[in-house]
Amino acid sequence: MNKRLWLLAMAGVTAWTLSGCAAVSAPPSIADTLASTPELSTLSQLVKQAGLADTLNGEGPFTLFAPSNEAFKAVPAKTLEALGKDPAALKAVLSYHVAPTRLPAASITNGKVTSLESSPLTTSRAGEFVTIEDALVTRADIVARNGIVHIVDRVLMPPKR
Predict the structure, then answer these.
(1) Structure pTM?
(2) What CATH code is carried by the domain that includes residue 82?
(3) Is residue 119 domain-resident?
(4) What is the C-alpha separation between 45 and 22, in angstroms, rounded?
(5) d(CA 15, CA 19)
């Protein structure tokens, strides 16, 4: 094969390869990320029950401080039962875990961010350790199409109004 024909063939292979890379789908939404992450199955179910899935499938950007299944086990059964019977209260609790902005762990500072529920959340960072209120981020920066998910070790309760 002559050099010119070889270069032409390589250009075609490169174009084909790059077009395949462009066809790679974008990351899933935050709601889809919850649904596909086993350690967030409880949260995923509650997000659907509260009617928050459409929001977390929306454009964003959002940062979700997502309580793990283990975090939900620490919530008293009576509290979870009461939230299950009150969709508005459940939505408020879950919305308290969402900030309407994109916050990678590296950009979190000692300060406050307003939650989707409208209450302030206190954020802290010391080296690699990130906290939101009294919850520790145990797994950071799960990228979604419309934001970021940080898995936390506690369920946060919004302040009483």
Answers:
(1) 0.83
(2) 2.30.180.10
(3) yes
(4) 33
(5) 6
